[in-house]
Design brief:
Elements: E1 4-8, H1 15-23, E2 37-42, H2 46-55, E3 60-61, E4 64-69, H3 82-88, E5 92-99, H4 114-144, H5 149-166, E6 195-201, H6 211-219, E7 227-230, H7 232-239, H8 244-254, H9 260-271, E8 274-280, E9 285-291, H10 296-303, H11 305-309, E10 311-317, H12 319-325, H13 328-333, E11 338-340, E12 351-356
Length: 358
């Protein structure tokens, strides 16, 4: 689907370490003038393996999301940097915060303060967004002189964003009707993108966090903003283990049930407003990505364009019904096998078989 999550943050916060854990890459740290690292991450989903346990297919294929490790930001140096241009191309942001002490890795601001770091990055994005909004208002004002009503409406909406940004508030929190957000679609506001925060802590704080991460959690208390705690250095050591059993032993030793990056991947997936549907057969059990609200033909198109073009119907089994009853035949017998048309909205976890003709 070409959806992309960007990992951002100040220099030296451990972005690339976490990127390497997510993508199983061995990327080099990127600084302000460097090139972004690009990787694909598999979305962990235990449902995939539970379906396969019943189907016994030849292979299991998870769904993926693209992730980009964007060069670290230095305060006041954003203008013209790769940092902002690469953020513009992403659909959501993972903001990594330094929540660990390490005298061998000096912080660019001289001390560890994740709340301050959030403000630094946010202000850089807001400053660039304000420029973009003001330029578009100027363009629309020229058009509005001819009496163009849509241009006048655009100016009104953009003025809301302008005042909001001038108050040092990100575009994502501006009080604008959903249908009016079309007026910023072409300027790709950086601070309008959904964001989650990752507190990169030391090994000892992997389970419950530390005083630094508590400040971040307190900052977003009462909001829907997601904050995760991940021990990046520890996770990178786990990721280097090839044997799954060795990984599990390592996790148990530090008190974790699963790698923190698994939670991060799932959270990023939700933040992108994505859902998963499955196809299952003797050749493969596979997870597919769709945007929430996608119709059956749109889901078919994710598999192959011919399936969308020649869509006839979708045969649907709910995941829980399949697991409970154990087979397609049993679902048919129990009345849990559904035939849906072009207007069906695919639900997360649906197992689909597409009938088509081209």
């Amino acid at each position: 689907m070409g959806l992309q999550c960007g990992i951002i943050g100040l220099a030296g916060v451990g972005k690339t370490t976490i990127f390497n854990c997510l993508s199983s890459s061995r990327a080099q740290t990127v600084s302000g003038g460097g090139k972004s690292n690009l990787g694909m991450i598999s979305v962990p989903d235990e449902r995939l393996h539970k379906i396969d346990a019943l189907v016994k297919s030849a292979r299991v294929v998870p769904t993926t999301v693209e992730i980009v490790d964007i060069p670290g930001l230095a305060k006041g140096s954003s203008t013209g940097s790769r940092f902002l241009s690469d953020i513009r191309n992403t659909d959501a942001l993972i903001h990594v915060l330094r929540c660990f002490d390490d005298p061998t890795v000096p912080h660019p601001e001289g001390s560890i303060d994740p709340v301050r770091d959030i403000e630094i990055v946010e202000l850089e994005l807001i400053a660039r967004d304000l420029e973009s909004v003001e330029k578009k208002i100027a363009r629309l004002e020229k058009v509005a002189k001819s009496g163009d009503k849509d241009a006048k409406k655009g100016i009104d909406v953009l003025s809301i964003y302008k005042h909001h940004l001038e108050d040092f508030k990100p575009a994502r929190s501006a009080f604008v009707k959903e249908e009016d957000r079309q007026y910023i679609d072409d300027i790709f506001l950086l601070s309008a993108k959904p964001v989650m925060y990752v507190c990169n802590v030391d090994d000892q704080a992997a389970v419950s966090g530390n005083e630094y991460s508590k400040k971040v959690i307190e900052l977003f208390k009462g909001t829907t903003t997601e904050v995760l705690i991940i021990a990046g250095k520890l996770e990178s050591e786990i990721a280097e283990l090839d044997d799954p059993e060795d990984r599990q032993v390592f996790l148990a030793d530090v008190g974790l049930e699963e790698p923190g990056v698994n939670k991060l991947i799932r959270s990023a997936y939700r933040m992108l407003n994505l859902q998963t549907f499955f196809t299952a057969g003797p050749k493969e059990v596979r997870a597919w990505t769709i945007r929430a609200g996608a119709t059956a033909p749109q889901a078919a198109g994710v598999i192959h364009s011919d399936l969308e073009r020649g869509f006839i119907r979708a045969e649907v089994i709910k995941y829980q019904d399949f697991i409970t009853l154990g087979s397609e035949h049993a679902c048919r017998e129990a009345g849990k096998f559904y035939v849906e048309g072009k207007n069906y909205i695919v639900q997360d976890g649906d197992i689909l078989h597409i009938r088509f003709n081209v």
